[in-house]
């Protein structure tokens, strides 16, 4: 790897960390501009800076960078990844369940055993308590919906805040001008997403380099010029004195301080778009972790930026409403305005790509309607783009900008839901530490208790923003939550029905031996979702068609979190009964061509089947492969029973059916030949 490639890799990480700067790509705008304090004394400002420093240190640096980032799932981050990580180590029995990503054999391996008595009891409690499992699943869905909801709000807030700085230089520029310029920039940003994270980061990485350098320079300049003793704010005693002196006003300030760390959760959720080690630089000694680029560059840059702005406000407290731009020297104002706007776009990009990662993980776990997921990098499996989600976020973002027109309600909405995601992350990480990492109970408590208290305090401070615009991200999150809950519930009911009504091999042999079933020459590939057993739609097909090809292969596909699966490992086949019926599990990597209608693929399946049969069946397989080949795609249509409750009927008959009708087919990526493909539906009354 040459120098520029190494720099690009590091900048790709910084691109995702850029969201930590908040509005405009820099949190100082939010923290000081959002405060209601007036007539600030030097001690008040030092206390605010001390709050920022310790919040960044405790929550972002220690919790996320050094602890939470280690709980990735195959390089993916976010609450879905935490759930998947937990699910691979704990067996769930609840009917309402997100798809399992592990195997039964995993649960008996040595690395899943042992641990403290509390660890064992916690695992047993989760495995035996369906209510606890349902609670955990709903918690995970809520967290992911909130991240996606923030993915629409962050670009609107960041870009608007950045552009509003231009109004201080010209009275002719109105809020309407700022709104429509923001709309144009946001549409361009969303249109650029199809290029992929690598190309976007290649363009944005120099922006972050310049952004760090200029903000550090201005911060150091302001410290030296206005108030060098601002470094005293490192002492937390200023925070205690501040709260004793200001009471409720100081409590309200916590909501503004929190805006400086909202990007921490986005950094974790966006982990799949950059390798974890791309933000971990240094060396490994025994069990020590890598030194993190965040602690070497981003963290000190943030501290110096805040300290410089605080030093300026000590001398100019009346400028607090426009703290960031006021602290920028006049000579470099316009270059900083351009850099700030570009940094705001970087911050927005990070949240958008995090939303793509969330949706991709949701698809893998079977709790989000199927949308088109495009892998934009041949090297990094986590770098994805979804056109449907991209345009949905674009409409929401533009709607927020035009609807609120950059008013105070939009500013109040920013960051309100993130604190709830952070609390959920703390809860899930505690389970990981206790059940999977086998961390000692005192260390688990040292993590859980301080962070649940700190984040709980921030949450209470942000509650007063809900009626003042903070309801917006909750409304967006609720919209996505209805989608995810309905889809997860429908898929769970579908799986439950198929598991309870699947065919046995004895029943299959009995049906095929009936004189009423005709055997037609050729091969039929029947695509179905059920991996374990013969789905009831096969029974439905045979009973109503009364005709089965000499060879029927029940095919189920699976996408693995790897770039490619070798041809010799791509097919797993088995024989089902004595009537020429076979099972074939096809596994793809994200770079593999999924076209299954070609002659080469049919020959490959036939060849693989021949390894599991005797010489007589080999001749039958060879003969059938020379005849006509047809493809049948099974589709289950759910319908709630009359005795089901109103909520169940609403969910299944209306929401789930609507989502199923308007989502992509499970086998749409297989490129089957249309002239040889038949879609067969079956009504599942549940």
TrEMBL record:
Coiled coil: none
Pfam family, any one: K_trans_C
Organism of provenance: Dorcoceras hygrometricum
Function: Potassium transporter.
Ranges for domain K+ potassium transporter C-terminal: 522-686
Domain K+ potassium transporter integral membrane residue range list: 12-508
InterPro entries: K+_transporter, K_trans_C, K_trans_N
PANTHER family: OSMOTIC STRESS POTASSIUM TRANSPORTER, POTASSIUM TRANSPORTER 26
Cell compartment(s), UniProt: Cell membrane; Membrane
Membrane-spanning intervals of the chain: 46-66, 135-157, 177-195, 202-223, 250-269, 290-312, 332-352, 389-408, 414-436, 443-463, 469-489
Membrane topology of this protein: Multi-pass membrane protein
Gene Ontology molecular functions: potassium ion transmembrane transporter activity
Keywords: Ion transport, Membrane, Potassium, Potassium transport, Transmembrane, Transmembrane helix, Transport
Keyword Ion transport tagged: yes
Main location: membrane
DNA repair found in the keyword field: no
GO-annotated cellular components: plasma membrane
Family indicated by similarity: Belongs to the HAK/KUP transporter (TC 2.A.72.3) family.
NCBIfam families according to UniProt: kup
Name of the featured protein: Potassium transporter
